[in-house]
Amino acid sequence: MLPNPLVRLRKQVASEGRDRISKSAEDYLETIYVLSREKGYARVLEIARALNVRAPSVTQMLKKLRARGLVIYERYGVVRLTEKGMAIAMAILARHESLKSLLLALGVSEKTAEEDACAMEHVLHDESVHALKKIADFLTNAPAGLKCLRCIREGKHLCLSNK
Fold it and tell me: I need a surface site. Which of 6, 96, 120, 154 has the fewest CB within 10 A?
């Protein structure tokens, strides 16, 4: 469970909208969050490898993120998310995981689901992601053999044909 101030900050970030942050900045925040979950920080070269970019590009973005109060970073040092940066990163990751879950439930391959979720997480409205998450939860928690899941995957109304 998240501490109360972080929960409030996530809600504030969500209500303000993420459209003030570029897709690229969102990718950096999400990557820093994922990389730092284990040890509490990330390094420039780790971020560069994860995003398939060069280290100078990472440094340039980190300066922008630091200016916005989203990361703590000193040249040649480690990178940490601020509370606001973490709240944004966690919201983006939650969107990503919801969308990927839906795509996997629909039978999309792991690789394609990952790529498409990464693209979709930046453009869909929160309302749309919330609705898609409900569908993903319904599909992934459905009992084995439930016809509606087969109906969606096969594109047929099996329940109407008693198959």
Answer: 154
